[in-house]
Specification:
With 163 residues, this protein is α+β, with helices and mostly antiparallel strands. Helix content is 34%, strand content 28%. It has a single domain, classed as Beta-Lactamase (2-Layer Sandwich), CATH 3.30.450.
Length: 163
């Protein structure tokens, strides 16, 4: 019995040791797995909502303290040309071409969003961005996923700030 317990326990132990966080490429910070899974689930559900409801989904996405927007978590939608179609926390960015925008470290993160979606369909991008209602940039990881909004190829994303 102890040998059988050991055989069953080793893979579980490996998961506990190696999966408590997702590695962040190029940064020392890590995104906790539970937050990563939560963000991925949110963004994938938003992609489905956009494909079925189009821009009508933006009303629900904008509502504070909802399944779509809570704490520092909010959705953003960008077409693959770099035009912001929707940003729950920063509506002043909507309609703007931000493909060439740089973060505080010089990274063109909108270009990277588009590249990740074109190359892989979805994925994580790290960059420096201020939390809602703040001005100082912080490390943020956003998960982006391919979608379409009323026939326009786009991406939807949400992120988590790494403390």
């Amino acid at each position: 019995m102890p040998k059988r317990l050991l055989i069953v326990s080793l893979p579980i132990l490996a998961l506990i040791v190696f999966l408590p966080t997702r590695p962040v490429i190029g940064r020392n910070e890590r995104v906790p797995v539970h937050q990563a899974a939560e963000i991925e689930t949110l963004v994938n559900a938003a992609a489905e909502a956009l494909e079925t409801r189009g821009r009508a989904a933006f009303t629900a996405f904008r509502r504070p303290n909802s399944p779509w927007r809570y704490g520092d978590v909010y959705l953003f939608v960008v077409d693959l040309q770099g035009i912001v179609l929707f940003n729950a926390a920063h509506p002043n960015r909507e309609g703007r071409d931000l493909l060439e925008e740089h973060d505080a470290a010089g990274k063109q993160f909108h270009k990277e969003f588009v590249s990740v979606v074109r190359d892989s369909g979805s994925g994580w991008v790290d960059y420096m961005f201020p939390r809602p209602r703040r001005s100082t940039p912080e490390v943020k990881w956003s998960y982006v996923c391919a979608t379409s909004v009323e026939g326009v190829p786009a991406l939807v994303g949400a992120g988590v700030y790494v403390e």
